[in-house]
Design goal:
With 228 residues, this protein is α/β, with parallel strands linked by helices. Helix content is 49%, strand content 16%. The structure holds cytidine-5'-monophosphate.
Length: 228
């Protein structure tokens, strides 16, 4: 173990199962959660709310710096945190595909990423943190005790996302989701700042033909091995 407060970094593309695995791991270990994707989504939502252009990097960085957000426990193991922006409950708005698309447009901007660096690191609290994102193991927590890179085919990820959104009564077409996943992959993987790539020490798990229980068992075995 490299730090007194352990950090587990879970990175990977959209729909790879990071969210569910992060929640299960945090519940099992009693650790906190950082949903870094939600922060980028919130910057997009705040920009829309305040009429800030999604191409205006300095205004977005300013918004990101002052982001007034809170995550509150819901008591629901499936969906453990509600998300609040400037006092409004935006848990549902944050999860839409449009919010994901906006997030991936603001995320390539270096000053926006820098503006939420401290906020992200402030989630590292005892007894430990499970951090979910794209650059948790590469940039935000390079000293993480365990690094996992979860991936799956774009088709499998679109189908999972479709089911998740349907379960939350958020309507979207499977084809539109597939297209947006491919578009977001491209943007996230090819951007200059903090591109989505596996950290050098990351364990890579392809979950295309694995059940979520199988993925979780593999992740838990790796993490407990590293935390010993
Ligand atoms: O994980 P989620 O789908 O909520 O992330 C939304 C978008 O936010 C991603 O497509 C990516 O562009 C961006 N993101 C990022 N770095 C992170 C987490 C998310 O660039 N650590």
């Amino acid at each position: 173990m490299t730090s007194t407060i352990p950090v587990i970094a879970i990175d990977g593309p959209s729909g790879s199962g990071k969210g569910v695995i992060t929640q299960r791991l945090a519940t099992t270990l009693g650790f906190h959660i950082l949903d870094s994707g939600a922060l980028y989504r919130l910057i997009g939502l705040a920009a829309r709310k305040h009429g800030v252009n999604l191409e205006d990097e300095s205004a977005l960085a300013d918004l990101a710096e002052k982001l007034d957000v809170s995550f509150k426990p819901t008591g629901d193991a499936e969906d453990p945190l509600s998300i609040w922006l400037e006092g409004d409950n935006v848990t549902r708005d944050v999860r839409t595909d449009e919010a994901g698309m906006d997030a991936s447009k603001v995320a390539p901007m270096a000053s926006v990423r820098e503006a939420i660096g401290l906020l992200q690191r402030s989630f590292k609290q005892a007894p430990g943190l499970v951090a979910d994102g794209r650059d948790m193991g590469t940039v935000v927590f390079p000293d993480a005790d365990a690094k996992i890179y979860l991936t799956a085919s774009a088709e499998a990820r679109a189908e999972r996302r479709y089911k998740q959104l349907k379960d939350k009564d958020i309507s979207v077409s499977l084809h539109a989701l597939f297209t947006s996943i491919r578009e977001r992959d491209e943007r996230d993987m090819t951007r200059k700042v903090a591109p989505l790539i596996p950290a050098s020490a990351a364990a890579i798990i392809d979950s295309t033909s694995l059940s979520i229980d199988e993925v979780f068992d593999q992740v838990l075995a790796i993490v407990t091995g590293r935390l010993d």
